[in-house]
Amino acid sequence: MSKPGSRGVVWLGSPSFPDAAREALGNTRLRANLKRATTTIRDKRLAVASELDDWEQLRDAATAIKNRTARHLDRYLVQLEAAVTAAGGTVHWASDAAEANRIVTELVQATGEREVVKIKSMATQEIGLNEALAEAGITAYETDLAELIVQLGDDRPSHILVPAIHRNRTEIRDLFTAEMAHWGQPAPENLGDDPRELAEAARLHLREKFLTAKVAVSGANFAVADTGTVVVVESEGNGRMCLTLPETLITVMGIEKTVPSWSDLEVFLQLLPRSSTGERMNPYTSTWTGTTDGDGPREFHLVLLDNGRTDTLADEVGRQVLGCIRCSACLNVCPVFERTGGHAYGSVYPGPIGAVLTPQLVGVENAASLPFASTLCGACYDACPVKIDIPEVLAHLRAKAVERKPRGAEALAMKAAATVLDSPRLLSAAQKAAALGGRALAREGRIGRLPGPLHGWSDTRDTPAPPAESFRSWWRKNREGER
Ligand code: SF4
User: Fold this and answer.
1) For residue 90, what are the β-bridge partners?
2) How confident is the model over 307-349, as pLDDT tens digits?
3) Which helix (H) or strand (E) holds 215?
């Protein structure tokens, strides 16, 4: 994110996850903030999910709806376009980030405005819309409180739902005091770090924007194909202000957010708040269908974004990721995310979902370290309200990442291992050699650092010294005659 008028940077995958994670692990304050926040949300989610007797049936229904929608997405998208158009809206199709940014920029320019208010939208972060608008001399003001904190700090979101999860309230107070004046209404003098004071400062700062902005840009949680209704769920009411006050509303939505009907939507409106914020229902659920004379925006544009999604749909294993409703439950249970935070993933989509979505959107070769940013413990799969089998997709993408670099050390090692495991004679010889070498390197039953490229293994794991005798050898001596 960038200050008004300066040029922003779209960031992705640099440095790679292991390097970024190593640096993040040294930040003890970040880890403390993350642990406190994820533990709180996790406990709330478990409590409200367990209140519903049909929670598992709801999850199954969500999976079935998402699978059905993915199978017939072409049909539902055309249906959605027809319904939005019939209701007075205009639908635009964007195959990639550049096309989506061009469409939105031209729409804003056509209004003659130089400022837009925005409500939290991961799709617009994915395409770097704020930066594209800034290049055209248009300033985008984030109005979601957490996004505002991220924007004022020239920072990056670190969580899907709580983008400023890495900041504590003292940091936020200092940020408001130092930066709000650069963007509009300054922070009150002697601002304290009490959450109510901070919220009031943000409210005053944003009110000025809401009352003057003529154009708003939003994301969408869902769009109902059979009526053309777009849905945004949020907690603060700032989204409602963005969606109703400006004269022109532009919504940028990934094509996978389509649901066939309102009865399908009902399933997700039960699952999403419980899985995300641990609430029984969202404080604000805004729905709108095209335009209405004398009420709300006079112009409505829906930009349907592909940007790698149809390629993802073509992958039989990876396509399940398109069912994601961005609840962030998988982040809050992930032991890796809890320690590294979201920035280490170098992507708009952090945590387990980022590790499987980003490589598919940008190509595995461009985010090859992300599928390895997991212990494969499976906690994400258990928590996911749509039952996306994230470990399965991680393993699938790991295989792709390795296949794409056949000369890499890992591919060569796998090839050598396959040859050895295929031959009992070679396996026995390799075990003897490894046992001899391992015991020579060991101190007090542990190997400190393996030699050569193998040190990548021992640098992050305890490596016990091999036993003096292999199981195969013991079996031959003691049991073979019993068969
Ligand atoms: S993968 Fe599942 S748990 Fe993670 S954000 Fe998406 S819907 Fe939520």
Assistant:
1) 301
2) 999 999 999 999 999 999 999 999 999 999 999 988 899 888 9
3) strand 215-218
Q: How far apart (Å, rounded) are the C-alpha atoms in residues 29 and 139?
A: 32
User: Is residue 340 a part of any domain in this protein?
Assistant: no
236 assigned to some structural domain: yes
H-assigned helices in 52-161:
55-71, 73-86, 97-111, 122-127, 129-135, 145-152
Whose tokens are 């604000």? That residue is 284
Angular region, 168: left φ>0, alpha ψ -120 to 50, beta rest? beta
**Maximum Cα–Cα distance across the chain:** 91
The residue whose CA is least distant from atom 6 of ligand 1 is 324
Domain containing 63 equals: 17-309
Residue 128 sits in a domain of what CATH number?
3.40.50.10420
**Is 322 in contact with 311 (CB distance < 8 Å)?**
no
Same domain, 41 and 158: yes
Q: Are 441 and 447 in contact (CB under 8 A)?
A: yes
Rounded Cα distance between 28 and 304, Å, is 41
Counted domains in the chain: 2
Task: Quickly state the pLDDT bin for 25 (edges 50, 70, 90).
Answer: confident
Which atom of ligand 1 has the smallest separation from the CA of 380?
Answer: 3
- Tell me the C-alpha distance between 364 and 404, whole Å: 9
Distance from the alpha carbon of residue 238 to the mean position of ligand 1, in angstroms: 24
Closest protein CA for atom 2 of ligand 1: 384
Question: Is there a domain that residue 227 lies in?
Answer: yes
Q: What is the pLDDT of residue 11?
A: 41
> Do residues 302 and 438 share a domain?
no
Q: Cis bond leading into 157, ω under 30°?
A: no
Q: What span, in angstroms and rounded, lies between the C-alpha atoms of 302 and 94?
A: 10
Using a 6 Å CB cutoff, which residues line ligand 1?
275, 324-330, 353, 383-386, 388
- Regarding whether 87 and 226 lie in a shared domain, the answer is yes
Q: Is residue 396 part of a domain?
A: no
User: Of 263, 281, 309, which residue sits at a domain end?
Assistant: 309
Sign of the C-alpha dihedral computed for residues 261, 264, 266 and 270 taken in this order: negative
**Cβ distance 69 to 260 under 8 Å?**
yes
Residue 417 is given by DSSP the state: H
